[in-house]
Design goal:
Length: 123
């Protein structure tokens, strides 16, 4: 049995042999072509990296998680609420991701603003 090399021409000959091609396949360059041993779906020709849509989705996901962590830490540090209220607000932040965090952020900010001593403005 004939052993095929690793050139493109040899691969085309192999394709003709196994498929029984009666038509001429295109003649390519005879440069050596080897598939890397670690070739997989991610290293194949179809893998082009992260597309623009995927990148935007990942950035939005990371931004959402960072905002939720920020609001959670702010709730936990706030001395205006007792433990049960803090737990309920934390659940709201994480179970209703963006809206819950925005609502809790607004409540905490308004409560902290109301508790600050008001300075008299002299004009």
């Amino acid at each position: 049995m004939r052993r095929f090399g690793s050139t493109i021409e040899a691969r085309l000959d192999q394709a003709r042999h196994f498929q029984g091609a009666s038509f001429p396949l295109p003649k390519e360059s005879t440069k050596s072509f080897r598939t890397p041993p670690c070739a997989s779906a991610f290293a194949s020709a179809e893998w082009r990296g992260m597309s623009g849509g995927n990148l935007i989705a990942w950035v939005l996901l990371v931004a959402t998680v960072v905002f939720q962590v920020f609001v959670t830490r702010r709730v936990r540090r706030c001395s205006l609420f007792d433990g049960e209220q803090k737990r309920a607000q934390t659940k709201l932040i994480w179970f209703v991701p963006i809206v819950g965090a925005a609502v809790v952020f607004g409540v905490v900010a308004s409560e902290e603003e109301a508790m600050r001593p008001k300075r008299e403005h002299r004009g």
